[in-house]
Amino acid sequence: MIDFKRICVFCASSPGNDPEVTDATVELGRLMAESGIELVYGGGSVGLMGLIADTVIEAGGTVTGVIPKGLFSKEIAHRGITKLEEVSSMHERKARMYELSDAFVALPGGFGTLDELAEVLTWSQIGIHDKPIGVLDVGGFWQPLLTLFDDAAERQLLKRSNHSLLVSAPTPTSILDALSEYSPTRHAKWIS
């Protein structure tokens, strides 16, 4: 059983149009705050990013945002969170969020969310870390990606054993449970 102090949540800077995703975002934020788990995220006040940060703060939790200086004009920085760190680049942002976190959860999102998820999965695959990584599969959002991973494994482009580096669950409670039960297994990419 893994005890988390901080979970990094990757999510969209857009709100989307699915109330099920909105509800799951709020529930995850509330559960994190109630469990004493600090939110680490991209620092924005808009979209699902702003929603989860607001929820954690309103529920009495702690939030650390990490945002590149250049995004202030495009992605409004959240000034109402516990701590907002400014970094120089997107690369530095991802590295800092990784450094601050004990686990990662990706909510439904777009290119940025997928980029962040892919990077921490790759780092896990090559042995840089063994932190739990999960996707909150609200309404089956992540099923096409999980199917892609299955296909990549079938084509021997991805080790089937490395599929276990990513856990998936449909609800906030079940994803937190899955992450806490995660047992890191070394499946080094370069070993046959």
Write a structural description.
By secondary structure, the protein is an alpha/beta fold. It has one domain: Rossmann fold (3-Layer(aba) Sandwich), CATH 3.40.50. The protein is 39% helix and 17% strand. It contains 6 helices and 7 strands; from the N terminus they run βαβαββαβαβαβα. The protein has helices spanning 19-34, 47-58, 90-100, 111-125, 143-154, 172-180; strands at 6-10, 38-41, 63-68, 83-87, 103-106, 133-136, 166-169. Strands 4-3-2-1-5-6-7 form a 7-stranded parallel β-sheet, sandwiched between helices. Helix 1 packs parallel to helix 2. The model has no long low-confidence stretch (mean pLDDT 92).
Number of strands: 7
CATH architecture term: 3-Layer(aba) Sandwich
Order of helices and strands: EHEHEEHEHEHEH
Biggest pleated-sheet summary: 7 strands, parallel
Mean pLDDT: 92
For the record, give the distance between the C-alpha atoms at the N and C termini, rounded to a whole number: 29 Å
In short:
The chain is an alpha/beta fold and 192 residues long. The protein contains 6 helices and 7 strands.
Question: What's the SSE blueprint?
Answer:
Layout: E1 6-10, H1 19-34, E2 38-41, H2 47-58, E3 63-68, E4 83-87, H3 90-100, E5 103-106, H4 111-125, E6 133-136, H5 143-154, E7 166-169, H6 172-180
Parallel strand pairs: 1-2, 1-5, 2-3, 3-4, 5-6, 6-7
